[in-house]
Amino acid sequence: MFSIPLAWLQLKREKVRLLVALAGIGFAVILMFLQLGFQDALFESAITLHQNIEGDIFLISPQSTSLISMKSFPERRLYQSLGFAGVKSVSPIYIGFGIWKNPFWQGPPASQTRSILVIGTNPGDNIFAIPGVAENRSKIQLTDVVLFDSASRPEFGAVAEKFKALSPSDPAIRTEVESRRVEVGGLFRLGASFGADGNLITSDLNFRRIFPSRDPALIDVGVIKLEPGANLEAALERFKSLPGERRVDPNKKIEETKEDFVVGDVRVMSKAAFVAFEQNYWKDSTAIGFIFTLGAAIGFVVGTVIVYQILYTDVADHLAEYATLKAMGYKNRYLLSVVFQEALILSVMGYIPGYILCVGLYNLTRNATALPLAMTTSRGILVLCLTILMCVISGTIAVRKVQQADPADIF
């Protein structure tokens, strides 16, 4: 037997108290949504580039820890893999951070520059499944021409807006990267991350011009494409015979698997392992993931305390009524169900406005930070379940007061 009308009548009797409870639950919901959303945006933005590189096997240095901290290795190690059966092509990638000069800045010179991620690749290798890259590959064959990420943070300047508004008679957009004059030849869309606020893609030759001190014989990522139908597991097994002694990392930071192992001075990984390599860095090697998880936990605790205070006060105010119901023959089970129903009503009513507000906050944050922050069904369901659990826990604690209701107290 359900007594939702009784539970609802008790809640709405004190309208101010109900509004305060809903505001508190809504705040907890928003806090959990924001923390979990930021955490997911962190992990998603960190692997966007990895997911958009078309390759089957990847080579990096065993000393590399993440995209923002890559170590170079000899390019010849990549080309040695062409000797293995099933390998279709290889492509080197160069990665570095350069100082970008905002071409439209009108403020103090000290605020005109900002660090930007520069990615160098052979224009003839179509390895990026990033919107805008394939159709602009020919442009970066020209000297000192780069492609600009239109989803970069606004601090780099209104490059995308100005470029789209260019007419054939307008001068090209020119600026400096690492004090090297470059021209924006096209746009692509990748997006900012917690490690890089903006991105550039250019040719391998232009990359060396921007970073002349870099050893041209060293690369940061080696991308290997296999022949159609080639067995990935068998191909990885063949890579264990690359020149150089296969070993386990001496610092035991690399737990070797069939899809992730070290041979000499290179680390061989499948694409799935390459993506996991970046995710694991942000999850395990930084405090950011822990901080966001802690923030969500704090929201859960805050919500639990607020709901408990509301339910406890409500039960205390109606203790005589509960004692009367007991005297009339109602069992504790019925009275406890009323309190739990109040908790469920509060959880749903507090969740709905919190959800709606968070959709707006996600959009606001995405526009301000260029991070891939958006509401997802899985996150919505997770927070709803946490909200219900939060209210049920509060009801469980508050319900002890009902069990103390004694008919003798009113007779």
How would you characterize the overall build of this protein?
With 411 residues, the chain is an alpha+beta fold. The protein folds into 2 domains: 4-44 and 287-409, no CATH class; 52-284, no CATH class. The chain is 46% helix and 18% strand. The chain contains 12 helices and 13 strands. The chain has helices at 4-13, 15-51, 75-80, 159-164, 204-210, 232-239, 271-284, 288-317, 319-327, 332-369, 377-398, 400-403; strands at residues 57-60, 73-74, 87-101, 113-121, 145-149, 174-177, 180-188, 199-203, 218-219, 221-226, 246-247, 260-263, 266-270. The strands form 2 sheets. An 11-stranded mixed beta sheet has the order 6-7-5-8-4-3-10-1-13-12-11. Helix 1 (4-13) packs across helix 10, helix 2 crosses helix 10 and helix 10 (332-369) packs antiparallel against helix 11. The protein is elongated. It starts with a helix and ends in an 8-residue tail after the last helix. The model has no long low-confidence stretch (mean pLDDT 86).
Give, in spatial order, the strands making up the sheet with the most strands.
6-7-5-8-4-3-10-1-13-12-11
Share of helix among residues?
A: 40-55%
What is the global morphology?
elongated
Question: Mind summarizing the main beta sheet?
Answer: 11 strands, mixed
Helix run count: 12
Alpha-beta content class: alpha+beta
- By oligomeric state, this entry counts as single chain
Calculate the terminal CA-CA distance, rounded to whole Å: 28 Å
Sketch the topology as an H/E string, one letter per element: HHEEHEEEHEEEHEEHEEEHHHHHH
The radius of gyration computed from the alpha-carbon positions, rounded to a whole number of angstroms, is: 29 Å
Average pLDDT, all residues: 86
* Tally of discrete structural domains: 2
Low-confidence stretches are: none
**Fraction of residues in β-strands:** 15-25%
Count of β-strands: 13
